[in-house]
Task: inverse folding
């Protein structure tokens, strides 16, 4: 592709998005339409609910990829992360000499330009933290824009163009596009950045932990003395990455001597109550409905950012109490026969462990049944094979599905669900292996009993297991 055309023209009226049915690209398409642009899009699998949603918003859709979809010669083509250089529309864009850009470039130009940018980064907690921050700003009357990788239940949307001067962005470390293999977050130039954690992930694009740390190091070194970096204080990887950060750095943790501290946690389901101290003095008492120490730490980072913006502890506390969470993050999908079915996005071993640990106290009267589908490029590889066996320690029963996409991983690198189940049994835990989703549903419909929590963890649709299981129950 002619890289000279990797730019956004000064004047743009019509925009075409390749892979428009992705969560982020679909949201961007709708925002651009609301801003007055003529928007079209294409994808390989155009079906409801995303297709219906986009068409209702006035976005013209093309089913499948073809250079003919560009025959109207849009002023700009936004190329999604999943698009290859051999895609017919990539080739068509080059052949026609059309201007093109990545999704982060488009966000920078059309949504973030001229705004104060609040960017949430890290291996874990980005979506929940960014969502909570966006809601706090909204609740406090700042009317922010935002684009986040999950659906905020307060808005029933993952993106919004606000009238205020702030924008909240989820800073993803994944690569940008086939013509730009750098992380997405390098495009956003934050005024305030939150860094929640750094661990190895995305084994399909990162060689090892040092490779990931190098990406984060590039991000923080680009900050200036006028910027603020809010970083978790109990992560040696973060310590290493921010060592030469030129920005004003403040740290947060559950204890220690850092600026922001989480203290005095009490659990009174559905609430998690806690105090936040700033520089050794009590800043305020807060409560949220999201369980787990990881979510409380996420909340502390939001408190630090909100304080920087001049928001009062009382206003922040009121926003926390009205935050309804994020879809697919510890989302209760239904209750049948006294059995709760919950959906969660956890897939990295750390996320699995912290999610189970956080939920355990909130369901004391029954068993916590963990149902896990390894589906990401990292979880389907054997790099975390041993670590996963420790992640399920607090579950009473573990159901592991054979990865449905395992054929995409080289044979010698494949994760073994059978081995994980054997390891769990050797640790004295009750665990079951399943080769398909149907048998999991049949097993749980017979095995689950009143008071149990069935925690379904996957970053994919998992064959609509939640609704099918609720129906079977």
Result:
């Amino acid at each position: 592709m002619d890289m000279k055309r990797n730019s956004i023209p000064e004047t743009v009226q019509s925009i075409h998005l390749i892979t428009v049915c992705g969560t982020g690209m679909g949201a961007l398409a709708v925002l651009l339409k609301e801003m007055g642009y003529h928007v079209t899009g294409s994808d390989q699998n155009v079906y409801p609910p995303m297709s219906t949603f986009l068409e209702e918003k006035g976005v013209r859709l093309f089913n499948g990829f073809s250079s003919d979809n560009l025959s109207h010669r849009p002023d700009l083509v936004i190329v999604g992360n999943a698009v290859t250089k051999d895609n017919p529309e990539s080739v068509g864009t080059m052949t026609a000499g059309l201007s093109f850009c990545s999704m982060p470039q488009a966000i920078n130009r059309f949504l973030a330009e001229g705004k104060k940018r609040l960017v949430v980064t890290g291996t874990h907690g980005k979506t929940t933290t960014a969502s909570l921050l966006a809601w706090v700003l909204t609740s406090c009357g700042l009317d922010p824009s935002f684009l986040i990788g999950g659906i905020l239940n307060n808005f029933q949307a993952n993106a919004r163009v606000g009238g205020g001067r702030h924008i909240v962005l989820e800073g993803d470390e994944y690569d940008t596009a086939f013509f730009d293999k750098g992380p997405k977050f390098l495009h956003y130039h934050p005024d305030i950045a939150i860094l929640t954690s750094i661990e190895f992930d995305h084994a399909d694009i990162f060689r090892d932990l040092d490779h990931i740390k190098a990406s984060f190091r590039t991000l923080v070194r680009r900050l200036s003395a006028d910027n603020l970096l809010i970083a978790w204080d109990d992560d040696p990887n973060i310590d290493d990455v921010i060592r030469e950060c030129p920005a004003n750095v403040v740290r947060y943790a559950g204890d220690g001597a850092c600026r922001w501290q989480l203290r005095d946690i009490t659990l009174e389901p559905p609430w998690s109550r806690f105090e936040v101290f700033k520089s050794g003095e009590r800043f305020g008492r807060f409560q949220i409905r999201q369980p787990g120490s990881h979510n409380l730490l996420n909340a502390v980072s939001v408190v630090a950012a909100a304080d920087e913006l001049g928001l009062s502890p009382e206003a922040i506390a009121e926003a926390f109490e009205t935050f309804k969470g994020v879809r697919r993050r510890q989302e209760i999908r239904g209750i049948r026969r006294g059995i709760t079915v919950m959906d969660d996005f956890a897939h990295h071993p750390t996320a699995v462990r912290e999610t189970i640990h956080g939920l355990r106290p909130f369901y004391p009267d029954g068993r916590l049944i963990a149902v896990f589908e390894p589906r990401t490029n990292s979880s389907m590889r054997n790099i975390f094979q041993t670590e996963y066996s420790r992640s399920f320690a607090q579950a009473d029963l573990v159901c592991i599905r054979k990865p449905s996409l395992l054929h995409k991983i080289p044979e010698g690198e494949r994760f073994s669900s059978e081995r994980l189940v054997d390891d769990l049994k050797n640790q004295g835990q009750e665990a079951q292996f399943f080769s398909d989703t149907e048998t999991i549903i049949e097993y749980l419909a017979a095995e689950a009993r009143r008071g149990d929590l069935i925690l379904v963890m996957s970053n994919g649709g998992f064959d609509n297991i939640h609704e099918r299981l609720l129906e079977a129950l």
The radius of gyration is 22 Å. The chain has a mean pLDDT of 92. The first strand starts at residue 14 and ends at 18. The chain has three domains: 3-106, 114-321, 331-472.
